[in-house]
Every structure is written in structure tokens, then in C-alpha cells.
Here is the input.
Amino acid sequence: MLTRSYVTFALLLLMSSSLVHGDDKKHILMIAGKPSHGYGSHEHFAGLKVLEQAINEAADNVEITTVKGWPSDESLVERADSIVIYCDGGERHLAIPHLDTLRNKLAEGCGLVCIHYAVEMVPGPPGDAWVEMLGGHFEIHRSVNPHWDADFKSMPTHPITHGVKPFVTNDEWYFYMRFKDSDNVIPILAAVAPESTMGRKDGPHSGNPAVRKSVAAGEPQTVAWAYERPDGGRSFGFTGGHHHWNWGNEDQLRVVTNAIRWTAGDEVSPEGSKLTKEIGMERLLENQDYDPPKNFNKEATQEKFNLQSSQSLPKATRLVADPSAATDQRSAKNAIAGLEIADGVEITLSASEPELRSLTNLDIDDRGRVWVCDVMNYRHNNGSRPEGDRILILEDTTGDGIMDSVKTFYQGKDIDSAMGICVLGNEVIVTATPTVWKFTDEDGDDKPDRKEAMFTQTGQPQHDHSAHSFLFGPDGKLYWNFGNTGKQVRDANGNTVVDIHGRPVVDNGQPLYGGMPFRCDLDGSNFEVLAHNFRNNWETAVDSFGAVWQSDNDDDGNRGTRINFVMEHGNYGYRDELTGAGWRQSRITMEDEVPHQHWHLNDPGVIPNMLQTGAGSPSGITVYEGRLLPERFWDQVVHCDPGPNVVRAYPAVPDGAGYSATIAPLMTGTTDKWFRPVDVCVAPDGSLFVTDWYDPGVGGHRQGDTDRGRLFRIAPAGTRYTVPKFDYSTAVGAVEALRNPNLAVRYKAWMALHAMGESAEAELLKLYADSNPRLRARALWLLGKIDGRGEHFVAMASADDDVNIRCTAIRLARQLGMTPSTTLARAAQDPSPAVRRELAVALRYDDSATMPACWAELAQQYDGKDRWYLEALGLSSDLRASECFEAWLNAIGGDWNTTAGRDIVWRIRAPAAADAMAQIIADPSLSLEDTNRYFRSLEYHQPATRNAALKKLLAL
Here is the structure.
């Protein structure tokens, strides 16, 4: 018989055993990072909740705890069999303060899973720790993070791949990780990355020579890996997971579900994790950090990401192709199939042949209607349409982005080969070299009632290097340009136009060369040449601050295409300023590389390029100041280059007194190389429209197709084309319209507010208080042009905290005729080199006695490195070089022989500067090669000055 004490002991032992074995579960701790990337991306918590459900469906012996942020309850970490982290990485990585805790926990055999950005750790000890614990990590300046279609055609035999079929998804798949040198790091998902992943400039996350070589060699790139650690634990890194919607892909979901179970020590059956519940749209909508945006289209997103099936994700949102056209790549029904679109947006074929032929320029009116130049009669195809080329109005009446109404506004031989269109209320400016026409529709029936010439005999007919499109600027003026076959600008009566500085606008080197951007009043008066010596600057773009941007084409085939910030009065170096010779002509300081030789970049007096983009044939350009597209495109230059079949943005950052930029593709012809984007324009809803010349060649020289032309819309997925209504009759309504990203809307708003004058001031001041400096700048231009209020608002804006507002104030002051060296004198000590650049530009035509001293104050702040700033000093001093140089010498006590001082001597065209250069050249410590730039600079001085300096050199 058992004693009571024995029975009690046995019961306690049984209970104890029951407690141990009754909780024989795998504990998985999932940690979600903070919200970061907006709706539908980096949804850390919502993504982990989807994985939690999938694991619970597939395994009975797991217990999952999902938390936001590192848990304050230490017991959750202590009992975890695997820790899953889904968060932002780098310096924001939530694990950095807890690396010691993790290291100790993993030493016990605990698993570790990192998803997407969580695989990136700070270089140094944290990164080294991640290599030891995870098996690898995203290392900046080595690894890259492009968005691309990863095609996983095969996978290794491993518990993580059980039940997983080959699949494709488009995601921000990171690759070229820094892996631990160990056979225990096993690639799970790998794919060959396309060359398009290397489209960005080298940078911390975007590229480097090593990864470029790897991609060029076609090496498979590992984007998910398993690691069996020496401590007996298991880790898994997964670089996908940017798009929340991809968790609806059954194969991706199964891979990660299997992996988490595997790292926790749970057995994964040969069939893999069974996902009994379909992960559809409704499930994915749960638990997200952000509310859906107003334009979110659930059905379109569901279709795009194939959420109702386990099929591979399609490469891009595209129109449904007619099966009968499947073999015809050139069919409009297959137009989108040959294009690649940037992450976060989709494209719609809005219109095409047979209604459209070859399209050049476009504009969009305040009703959202798209106006296009439909061109057939070009170069060797001239006469193919005897009735003449057309201006068409396209309208979407249903909001689906497809133009269901097409009407002809005007057709005639007088607009053959039209290269520009600008819609300003009931007036339409059409650029058809050699004439710039203004059509007026007085009764609103979409037919012109009056046609008059604005400019005549301007440019070479049938040539795309001649006159180009007009646009309305934030200052109430017109901007336009011509290329290097523009020859001259003549008014309606055939007289050569003379600009406000007394210069005939003629390409003859006296003093103007080549392509030139212009500014004038709405009637063509107060004509200004903003810069010169471009080759084929096809179109101008002006931002709300009044900054001007252009692209420019090289002599074809020399990989010298460029993007420029236009520093007013600047020489952009296509032809030799001294002789008019081309870039191939030998010169002392000829650049090493042809793309740089092309623009005489080593010559004094040439403005630097913001960006050189290689081979191309650039055309239409705009500044995107909308907010509909993803944030990376906000406030950036967007540009069409039909040569490499691409529409792209150039994200720019200040670089001293200038800018540097990178390339961000928006829309690329990948398999269809006939895609020739010519122009891009912002619609009132913030979407973009793009015209497609659609041709096997580029431009009129090789136009091989006159029967096809296309119009595309770029917008976030599922965004309907809904145009706001505008009320221009009140200051409140007009100010609201002034906020719009579309120039036709802003034209009407500007004209209404300007006419209201002082009565609009209160509402404009409300806009000036906005947090967006671009909106504030739009208000400032109008405030400054209220009669009698200009000086007040210039002074107010000159003291503003925002650099760009201070730049705008200087530009406004110039248009108001203020004397820069007195009115704007405080800007000479501005901490921003961009503001000081603008002051220097403003000083060029300042004929006051105070100008040289103001210039000298600016010159003292030159750092010896910033070429943009140096050239601003040069162009501002050119008309009063001796006075400026003397004022500077007096200000510095004559101590000019410094690094910065020698640069100023090199650039300033004062006789005393030539004498100083002779002293520099005579310095025996200076190498012969280093003297070349000074000999080149001497060539820019008058012969008598140069000879005198050389004689002094011989005497030294």
C-alpha cells in the first residue's frame, strides 16, 4: 500500500511533468518596427499579423506573440524559440540597443529572422554582429536596394522551400549582401538581376563597381538565405517585404512561414506549411499603420498584385491585350507590355492610333483636357498629310484616364512640324518654326476665331533645333527657347528683337551663341535672353521659385547629353566663346573625356553641368510640384529622352552654389524600343501625361513611322482621372487654384489675382504662411507685383528662413527694377551660397557706385572649390571687371595669391588680373601642366592686355 506522502509526491511529480510537457510549444516573438513608408509599404505590424495567421494555420504546436517595438516584458524574449524582426534598418534599427541581449539569447540556440529593411545594419560592430547572428547583412556602399521583378525559377532542397513553387514578384529585393564566409549560409531565393537595377548613380544604397560587375556578368543574386549557426541555432534573412500586398502571394508567404517555423525548431512537412485560408485583399487591409488614401483603389491593387491566386505577379500594371494582337508588338493593345514603370505608379494608354499620329509637344488645360501637336509633315515626310498638321484636344469624360473624345482645334500647313503648344485660357500659343502663332478662341467652341503671329522668321523650318514650346512662369511671364538652328528672333513685323540689355537676339557670337532660353511679357515685350551657347535645349522648365531648368543634346553619338540649372546670363559652352569653333578644335586645357570636352568645361566663363546623362536625344521637360505621385518625385525635374526610350526624374540636391543630381526612371521602353517619349506635362489632378512619337528612330532625320502615336498617363495604381473645379472669381478661390500643380490652372489664378491687386493681398498672405515653400513663392511673386508693395515684400522675403524664398526675393527685386547692391546688400553675407549666387547674378547689370564693393564682399567668400560660385562671380563682374577686381584687392589688402585668389584671378577679365596671372605662371614651383589653365585664361583678355602680361612674364 502506498503511503500518503508517496502518493502526494507522485501526484506532484505527475503535475510537474504535465506542466512541462503540456507547454511543449515553440514560442515565436514577432517584433514590428515603427511606421515609416506610407500606406501599403513597410507595413511591419500588418505583415507580421499575416504571417502569424499563416503559422497558426500550419502548425498546432506554436505560440506567437506579436508586439510593436522592442518588448518591455523581458520574459517574452527569455522564452522565445525564435525572434522575428520586421522594421526599418540602418541607424533606425530597433535591435541596435539590444544587440547584447540578442547575442546572449541566440547563444542558447534561439532562432532569428529578419525581414526586408531589418537585414540592414550600421557598418562596424553592429554590422559585424549581424553577420555573426544572421549570416549576412545589407552593407551600405556594397549592397543595393532596387525595385525589380525577381524570377525565382529554382530553389534548393531545404525545409524552407518545402511546398514552394517557382514564382515572380516585383519588390525592393536587396542583393549583394555581406555574407559570412561559411558553408552554413545557404541561398534560398536567388535570381539574376536585370541591368535596369543598375540605373542609378553609385551611392550608399544604389550601386558600386563591384555590384555592377556582378550584375553585368549575370550572376544570380541571393535575396533570401538560411544560416545554421555554430551555436546550433538557425537564422533566416529575407530582403523582400517592401510591398505589403506581396504577402498575398502564396509562394512568398509559404517561404517565410516555413522559415520562421524552421528557425524555431518546428518540423516543416515535405508539403510545406499548409495555408488553409486565402490571403485576399480584405485580410491585407487589416492592421495597417496608415489609413487608405482617398485615391486608393482596392480592386486595381487586387488585380495588380494577383491577390486571388498563387500565380506569379505580372511585371507591371498593363492594359488587357487582345489575344489577336498578341504577336504584334507594335499594336497599341500591347503598348504597355513593352514598358517598365517605376514602383508606386502605373501607366494607362490614354489614346493612340488611329486617332493619333506622331506626337510632339503637349499641354493640359484647367479642365484636364490634353492638347497635342499631331505631326506628320516633318522633314522627308513633309507633304504626307496635304491638309497640314493638327492641334488636337483630347478629353476623358468618364475619369478612367482614357481619352474618349478627340477633336481637332486647328489644322493647316502653317503649323506643319509644330514643336510646341501652350494653353493660356482662351489663347493657344503654337510654335511651328519659323513662326510662333497665337490662336484665340473667343466664343469657347474649341475653334480659333483669330490667329496672329507673335514672332516670325525665327529658326530653320522643319528642324527640331529651332523654336520650342512656351510656358507660363510663376512671375507672370512667358518662358521659351530655341536651339542652335534658331538663328535669330524676329517680331511679328520681321524686325530683329533687341533684348532689355540692348543686345540683338542673333546667334552670331556678338555676344550670343547657339541655343538660348528666353523670358518675355505675355505680349512678347520686355524680351530677355537668359543664357546662351546650348546646342539643342528642346524645352525650358521653371519652378515656383523662378529657377530655370533645361536639358541639352550633344552632337549625336558622343554621350554628352546634359541637364542644366540655368544660371542667368551664363555661357553653357557648346561653342568656343573666343572663336565660335566646335568642341573638337584643339585647345590648351582640353578635357580628358569627350562628354566633357563637348561643353568646354575647363574654359573660364563656362557654367558647370548639373548632370551628364550619357547618350540620348532629350526633349520635353517639366518640374513636378504635385503631390499625387510618390514622394521621391515631388518637386523634381521630370524629363523625356526618346533616345534611350525613357521618362525619368532627376532628384537634385544643393551642391555649393549649384546642384548635383541622380537619375530616377519613371517609365522605360524595355522590350519595345519604338517607345519615344517626347514631352511630359502635369495635369490638374497631379498625374503626368506623356506623348510618344513612337518610331524606330529619333527625330526627323530617321522618322520611319508616321501612322502611330500614343499618349500615356502616369499615376498611382487605381487613381481615377478626377479634375478639380476652380473658382477664379474670388481671391479665396483663385488662391486655392494657385496651389495646383498644373500651369494652365495657375495661369488663370495668377491673372485673376494680379487683376485684383491689393484686394487679394490678405488671401495671398495666408498662402505665404503655408509650410510648403513653393506655394509661398507663388504667393510672393504676386504680392511683390501689387502696385507700391514690391519693396515691402522683397524686404520681408529677403529675411525669410527658407533659402529658396530668399533666392526668389532677389529674382523678384530684379524684375521690379531695384538696385541689387543697395536694396539686397544684406544678401552678400547670407550663409547660403545659393543666395549669394543669385545676388551675384543680379549685380551684372547694376551700374551703381555701390556695385563693386558689394561684388568684392561676395568674392571674399569664395572657398576655392565651388565652380558654380566662381562662375557667378565671373558673369556678374564681366561688364565692370576692373572696378570689381580693384575693389576686391582693396578689401583683401592685396593678398590675392591664395588658392581661392588664384581662381578669381583666372576667371576675372580685368587687366590687373592678367598681370597677376603672369606672376602665377612665373612661379617655379608650378608645374608646366598647371600653367596651362592660366595661359588659356589669358586668351580671354583683350590682345593688348594679353601682350602686356606676356611681356611682363618674359621680364620676370
In short: The CA atoms of residues 397 and 496 lie 45 Å apart. The longest helix spans residues 4-22. The two ends are 125 Å apart (CA to CA).
